[in-house]
Amino acid sequence: MMRKITTLFCMSLLIFTSCSSEDNSSQNTETSRVPKKQIISSVNAPVTIDFVFDGNKIVSSTHSGNYVVKYTYTGDLITKKESSDLTNEYNYTNGKLTTYLRKLTGRDYYDKYSYTYESNDVVSFVVTRITISTGAEEVISAKNIYTLKNGNIIKYETSSSVITYKYDNKNNPMRNILGFNKIFEEQPQVSSSVNNVTSYTVTLANNSSYTNEITYTYDDNNFPTVINNKALSSISTYSY
CA-to-CA distance for 89 and 77, rounded, in angstroms? Predict the structure, then answer.
C-alpha cells in the first residue's frame, strides 16, 4: 500500500518538471512560498501529504497512513531521501548530480544512476544494478537522455520511448524548495523546477504515440491550487 502511495505521489510530480520559453512575467516573486499540504484524489483512496520545512529546505513529507519521507541536506543540496521501504542517496560534483543510488528495503541489490553532462543542454545516464553481497554490476538501462531548455527537461529519451513536455509560464508548487531542481532521479516526473507541465507526448519505438493534458486552477500568486491530470484520473489540491 505504501509503495502505491509513493508511486502516485511521484507520478503527480509529472507536473513539476520545468521551465517555459514563454513570457515569464507571471512567475514567482515570493521566494519563500512553499506548499504545506497536498491532497491527491484518484480512483484509489485519497492521499494527503503534509510537508514540513526549515526555511526553504524540505525536512519531511508525511503521507496518509503515517508513511514518512525524510530529507537530508549537505549545504544547499539534498543528499538523502529515506522512508521505511526506500533510501535514495545523491552525490554531486560542482553542484551537479553525478550519481543517484536507489535502495529498496529487503532487496539484495540496489540501482545506481550515473549521469554524464554531454553539454549544457544534454544529460545522459546509465543504470546499473549492483549485487550487495558480491559488488557485481550489471547494466540494465544503457540509453537514457534528457534534453533541457533553460536548465529544464523538455525531452526524455530511452531505448523504448521518447517523451516531450510542454509547460505553462506559472509557478510550480515546488519551485522554491531548495535543491529539488538538482534531482533527476529515474524519471523527469519526479524532478522539480519552475513551471507546470501542461501536456506530454509519448512516442513508442513502433512510432505510435499519445498525448496527455493537465489542467490547472491558479491562485492570485499564479501557484496551482487544483491540478487535474486526466490521464491518471487524479486531482491534486494544494495549500501554501
Answer: 11
Full-prediction pTM beyond 0.90? no
The least confident of 7-11, 75-79, 140-144, 157-161 is 7-11
Contact 115, 184 (CB under 8 A): yes
**What mean pLDDT, rounded, does the chain reach?**
86
Whether pLDDT at 20 is above 50:
no
* Burial class (CB within 10 angstroms; exposed 0-12, middle 13-18, buried 19+) of 207: exposed
**DSSP symbols for the chain:** -HHHHHHHHHHHGGGG-B--SS--TTS---TT---SEEEEE-SS--EEEEEEEETTEEEEEEETTTEEEEEEEETTEEEEEE-SSEEEEEEEETTEEEEEEEEETT-SEEEEEEEEE-SSSEEEEEEEEEETTT--EEEEE--EEEEEETTEEEEEEESSEEEEEEE-SS--TTTTSTTGGG--TTSGGG---SB-EEEEEEEETTS-EEEEEEEEEE-TTS-EEEEEEGGGTEEEEEE-
At residue 150, the pLDDT reads 73
**Closest of 117, 115, 140, 137 to residue 127, by C-alpha:** 140
Exposure letters 105-137 (e unless 16+ CB within 10 A, then b): eeeebbbbbebeeeeeeebebebbbeeeeeeee
Of the listed ranges 43-57, 107-121, 146-160, 176-190, the one predicted with least confidence: 176-190
